[in-house]
Write a structure and sequence with these properties.
Radius of gyration: 19 Å
Helix content: 40-55%
CATH class of the domain at 2-188 and 221-247 and 281-300: Alpha Beta
Shape: globular
Strand order of the largest sheet: 3-2-1-4-5-6-11
Bound molecules: nicotinamide-adenine-dinucleotide, thymidine-5'-diphosphate
CATH architecture of the domain at 2-188 and 221-247 and 281-300: 3-Layer(aba) Sandwich
Largest sheet: 7 strands, parallel
Distance between the termini: 49 Å
Length: 339
């Protein structure tokens, strides 16, 4: 099978490319990525020579480029990871999120219709459900939870989800959607909480924790996410939404302290800074549907996953040092200097 993976030079897409080439060496993976600030060819360096892998640079919102991609590579399956993915950046510049996350999804699906693909899979997020209160540990997001977004990022992802379901209902496009909780693991861009904390702490620099650090996220090791998507595109039902996550909730402060312990760095590095506007309080996924239908469950315990992740950042310093020595410095100054 030919599988187009958009956004495969990013964090989860890059992990998915590695996962698929290992698990399904008979398939051909075509990575299509615009190489924005978040895309990194170093993430794909060790698969570039693989005869079952092809890299194509291009934008999902560009109809001409997308059309040649489909014409040249005859995909059976398209998995769309390409997105602007950072909530804080969506507060600085919402427009780009509409362009890539909503329009780009529509452009890809138009090509899927024209070239009669077998499955279009949309990688979405639990953030489309909004948030849950901190004092109701009994509440979880199911696939039936109404969409109720908070940030321009989550609103753009929810809009894309609705468009995907509309293409299923109106045109019969064979689609599926997965909504996943917060991922962590190798190749994670250091603007996100866990890699930010690891890279800042290694340099003995302050660790910015928004508000009181009480917000809760449901953390999933990225390889568990890749395994879930792999099962959905091969065995999941058309027209269905699958939640991916696994009762692994931590407050941000707990996460930061776990990382510091793993690194042997002091908690005195923690700085409480101004909160994110509209900051979602708690995300928590109920993964019953994907477990019942596809037998999927997360396999990596949080402490083991954090250990593996910290080891990866220690063993792959050039990968993240190249990022934080460049344009990223300007972003960091803009986001944190007056906080
Ligand atoms: P990322 O920011 O690390 O990577 C995004 C990739 O998409 C980059 O390689 C970038 O170059 C590429 N890209 C951006 N705009 C593009 C465009 N217009 N055309 C082509 N390529 C483009 O993101 P990530 O964390 O790997 O997230 C991947 C997907 O998973 C996103 O759709 C995101 O919404 C979703 N998701 C992420 C998480 C998480 O915890 N990171 C959780 C749930 C869902
Ligand atoms: P993030 O990694 O940006 O993912 P998301 O906003 O999609 O959940 O943030 C995870 C949590 O960590 C979120 O509650 C915001 C918080 N956070 C901080 O406290 N400090 C930071 O510097 C960052 C980037 C995030």
């Amino acid at each position: 099978m030919n599988i187009i993976v958009t956004g495969g030079a990013g964090f989860i897409g890059g992990n998915f490319v590695h996962f698929e080439l290992k698990q399904h060496p008979e398939d051909h993976i075509i990575c299509y990525d615009a190489l924005t600030y978040a895309g990194n060819m170093e993430t794909l360096a060790d698969v570039m020579d693989n005869p079952h892998f092809t890299f194509v640079k291009g934008n999902i919102a560009d109809r001409k480029q997308v059309d040649s991609l489909f014409r040249d590579h005859h995909p059976d399956i398209v998995v769309n990871f390409a997105a602007e993915s950072h909530v804080d950046r969506s507060i600085l510049d919402p427009g780009l999120f509409l362009q890539t996350n909503v329009l780009g999804t529509g452009v890809l699906m138009d090509a899927c219709r024209k070239y009669s693909i077998k499955r279009y899979h949309q990688v979405s997020t639990d953030e489309v459900y909004g948030d849950l209160p901190l004092d109701r540990a009994d509440l979880f997001f199911t696939e039936m939870t109404p969409l109720h977004t908070s940030s321009p990022y989550s609103a753009s992802k929810a809009s894309a989800d609705l468009l995907v379901l509309a293409y299923y209902r109106t045109f019969g496009l064979p689609v599926s959607i997965s909504r996943c909780s917060n991922n962590y693991g190798p190749y994670h861009f250091p603007e996100k909480l866990i890699p930010l904390i690891i890279t800042q702490a290694l340099a003995d620099r302050p660790l910015p924790v928004y508000g009181k650090g009480e917000n809760v996220r449901d953390w999933l090791y990225v390889v568990d996410h890749c395994r879930a998507i792999d099962q959905i595109i091969r065995k999941g039902r058309e027209g269905e939404v699958y939640n991916i996550g696994g009762h692994n909730e931590r407050t941000n402060l707990q996460v930061v302290k776990t990382v510091l312990k793993e690194l042997g760095k002091p908690e005195s590095l923690i700085r409480f800074v101004a909160d994110r506007p509209g900051h979602d309080r708690r995300y928590a996924i109920d993964p019953t549907k994907i477990h019942r239908e596809l037998g999927w469950l997360p396999e990596t315990k949080f402490d083991d996953g954090i250990h593996q992740t910290v080891q990866w950042y220690l063993n792959n310093k050039p990968w993240w040092q190249h990022i934080i020595s460049g344009e990223y410095q300007n972003y960091y100054r803009e986001m944190y200097s007056n906080r």
